[in-house]
Structures are given as structure tokens and as C-alpha cells.
Amino acid sequence: MSGEIWAALLRKRFGMGIKMNSTAVREEYPYLYETHLHTSESSACARSTGAEMARACKEYGYTGIFVTDHNWGGNTAVDVTLPWDAWVDQFCQGYEHAKAEGDKIGLDVFFGYEAGYDGTEFLLYGIDEAWMKMHPELRYVTVEEQYELVHGAGGLVMHAHPYREEAYIPEVRLFPDCVDGVEGINAAHHWYSGPRDKAVFDKRAVTYAGEHGFPMSAGSDIHSTALFGGGMAFHRRLRSGADYVQAVLGGEDYVMTDGKVWYDKSGRVISIG
Asked: Average pLDDT for residues 156-183, to the nearest whole number?
């Protein structure tokens, strides 16, 4: 597909033209982060280890990654009958292996996880292993209680792919009072090669975020080293998961990508390629 045709399709879908070329975007926002990534140590659906993911992301050009494996309410690879502390230790192995490799190769690796509630999922940031061990009740809390616990730790709750329609999701459920924001761009939707238009899930998510004034995130939802290139890019290097939380909640400027298209923080297309 030619660039002109692709741009025309984007204008039809998002109602605007292209403002910047991709080179200019990367020059202005040089620090790229993958915010939605799984490892085979902790997510049953993942095919690559934490160390393998770290190396692939460094080679791709990411500044950093957030490891967000599936918890006990999702497609976890960890035996849910383990005692709580043992479960947390094993669950964090994917992150720990990615972090150790990242420290060697110069890739920032931050902790997070994807919490599942019967197919409805949330990305949690700004928390850590020690916090999880302090809260064994996490296994049983409601969506509302999870929000309060994460907030008590200064963390961030983002509704992951809120309009995704898949067999493992019985229904689309929205919790506008129990999230800080929305994953507006999920690159997995845009790299799907089947007959369905899964990118429409993101269009709905962007609209939903706009209606509620939510900040948005972007990530690949990547499960192997066959990277999509999705994520968020900032003017500066992030110092920690807590720094990311403050950047998102504090209204800091950033851009988002699905690996093909660049969007501003409100979800408007600014560049392709």
C-alpha cells in the first residue's frame, strides 16, 4: 500500500491529516518505552523469556520497558495454589530476568502487571514486589478495592484494551470510576492480519478516554521477540515506574505509537511510518 493511500485511510478513520514525519517525531521524543509486555516465565501466553525480551527491545531502539505479566486473574504461568509469598517470587521472575539483562545492556526495565477480572484487564504501574507481598488480599479484591490499594501506594491503574472483543472476554465492561486512564493504543490490534478490523477497538478506546478526560497510554501487548514497536515516547528519560506515574497523571507531554502510526497524547494521528 502506498504512503498516499495509507494516509488517506488514516484521514478517513481519524478525521485529520498528517502533521509530522516519523523522523521528526523521534527527534522530538527520543525516549521510547514499551508499556505492555509479557514474559514466558510468568505469562502462559508468552513465548519469550524476560532476558530475550530485554535484548530484543534494546536492539529495536527502546529506552525502556515495563514488564506487565498476567496475574492470578489472567493467563498466568505460575501455580495459583502456591503460598502467597512464593507465588509473588515466581511471578516476578520474568521481570527479574528482564531487569538483570537490561542492567547489562543499558535498557531500563520497570515493574508492573496486568490484573485480570474475568477477561476485563487493568495495567498497574508504580507498585513493586514488596508491595504485592504486603497485600495478600490482592487475590480477592474487587476492581474498586484494587483501585484504592494501588492509589494508596501512589500507583497508576490503566484499563487495558477496554473495547477488545475476543473469546476470553465475555463482555466489554467499563469502570470509569476505578481507573486513572485508558490504554488507547494497543499495537496488537493494528498488527493483526486476519479478516477483522481490530484497530476499531482502539478508536473506541480513544473516544472513551476523551469523553472522560482520561490520559491514555500505548503499548504493544507483546508476547514474543517478534516486536510490533508500540509504546510511548517522551522528551526525557524516565527514572522509575513512579516517575512514569507522575508523567502520565501530571499531564507531561508524550506521543504514542502502534509501530506504524504516531499519535499525540489525545489519540490524534500526527505521523505515519
From this structure: 97
- Domain containing 62: what range? 18-272
CATH code of residue 193: 3.20.20.140
Beta strands in the chain (DSSP E): 31-37, 64-70, 108-117, 120-125, 156-159, 181-186, 216-219, 231-234, 254-257, 261-264, 269-272
The model's pTM: 0.92
- What count of Cα atoms within 13 Å lies in the side-chain half-sphere of residue 9? 11
In degrees to the nearest 10, what's the CA dihedral of 74, 76, 81, 85?
Answer: -100
Q: How far is CA 153 from the centre of its chain?
A: 20
Q: Kindly report the number of other CB atoms within 10 A of residue 246's CB atom.
A: 16
Please indicate, yes or no, if residue 261 is contained in any of the structural domains: yes
> 62-106: per-residue pLDDT in tens?
999 999 999 999 999 999 999 999 999 999 999 999 999 999 999
Q: Which sign does the torsion angle of CA 21, 23, 24, 29 carry?
A: positive
Structural domain count of the chain: 1
Residue 218 has what DSSP assignment? E
Q: Which residues contact 192 (CB under 8 A, 6 or more apart)?
A: 198
11 assigned to some structural domain: no
In a domain, 4, yes or no: no
Question: Phi and psi for 210 in degrees, rounded to 5?
Answer: -65, -40
Question: What's the average model confidence in pLDDT over 199-219?
Answer: 98
- Residue 264 bridge partners (DSSP): 255
The residues facing 129 across adjacent strands are: none
> Which conformational region is residue 205 in: left (phi greater than 0), alpha (psi within -120 to 50 degrees), or beta?
alpha
Please report whether residue 7 resides in a domain. Answer: no
